[in-house]
Amino acid sequence: MNRSGVPEPAIERYEPKSYRCERASGPLELDGRLDKPFWAAAAWTDDFVDIEGDLRPRPAKRTRAKMRWDDEFFYVGAELEDDEVWATLTERDSVIFQDNDFEIFIDANGSSHGYYELEINALGTVWDLLLPRPYRDGGPPVNGWDIAGLRTAVHVEGELNRPGADSRRWSVEVAMPWASLKECAAEGRPPAAGECWRVNFSRVQWQVDVVDGRYVKRLDPETGRPCPEDNWVWSPMGLVNMHYPELWGYVQFAEADTPAFELTEDERIKWQLRRLYYRQRNYYEAQGRFASDAAELMTGEGWTISPQAETTSGLFQLSAPSEDGRSRLCIREDGRFWKEELR
Predict the structure, then answer these.
(1) Taking residues 160-171, what's their average pLDDT?
(2) Considering only CA atoms, which of 124, 102, 136 is closest in space to residue 278?
(3) What's 104's DSSP letter?
(4) Paired residues of 203 in beta bridges
């Protein structure tokens, strides 16, 4: 097991974004454009912000997304304003974020284990992968995993890879089959109306210069390496790391009569347990052992739980009763969440 420390996000309040994903009324003909009837009734997400949230300035270029669903697919459309539209990678499962890209992250079971990542550039090249667990918890990505039946399209309003062109934006449409996404979902099935999956989106944006009539990444004169990329996201993370599924947004799959989304008390309890997980891992790194009493970790404000800690020399489990008292919520040393019914 990985006993290294885990950075705690700089978040004052637990307020992930939420989105009501309405059922589609007809099929989607993918061409990368979002100005067609299929998307007309779907709301835009909030404009993306820096991955660190309010710690950093607002992005200079607007990014926003829409979502819909039906019995076969989860649909995502995204619009990325850009006057420098470029891409170079053409082979599937290349490391697409080495280009500017749009990224989709999906945790279908809410455990933070067994989640999906999809990246796409302006050429329409994709990288899809399965992560059994986050990198912080020792989980290597499964690059050979593909979203079977994936459909994508990209539209460029302007000209790709042509400096000086009157480029305005590029947009993406993605249709992901439930037949693939249900693999790691609760009960191995697609979502039912009213249920939520954890989802986030990221835009990677590199600074570029024009050299010999083409875009090249801007170099940092001190290091000689490309300047760090910007990371703009839908639901801010509080640190530069997308692989914290517990901070992603809540996407509610809705029918016309589905009640509005409200963050449950159990989700707030899970967040407090997650904060203790960060601190327990950091405690081990500093002390060489886990804290046997959760109270040792509960400094600061905002605690409403009375958790139980169970530890061995190399393992721990933290738990707290659910809101209704009929079950308990649990997290262990590798970050996995689960719920146990009480007898």
Answers:
(1) 96
(2) 136
(3) E
(4) 102, 232
Percent of the chain at pLDDT > 70 equals: 99
Print the domain residue range for 333.
Answer: 268-341
Structure tokens at 55: 């710690």
| Predicted confidence (pLDDT) at residue 323 exceeds the cutoff of 60 | yes
Q: Residues, the chain, total?
A: 343
pLDDT digits (tens, 9 = 90+) for 170-226: 999 999 999 999 999 999 999 999 999 999 999 999 999 999 999 999 999 999 999
Contacts 24+ apart (CB under 8 A), 243-246: 243/131, 243/134, 243/135, 243/136, 244/9, 244/112, 244/134, 244/136, 245/105, 245/107, 245/112, 245/115, 245/134, 245/198, 246/112, 246/198, 246/270, 246/271, 246/274, 246/337
Residue that finishes a domain, picked among 220, 254, 288:
254
Tell me what pLDDT residue 339 has.
Answer: 95
For 101-145, the pLDDT digits (tens) are: 999 999 999 999 999 999 999 999 999 999 999 999 998 999 999
Residue where a domain terminates, one of 254, 284, 311: 254
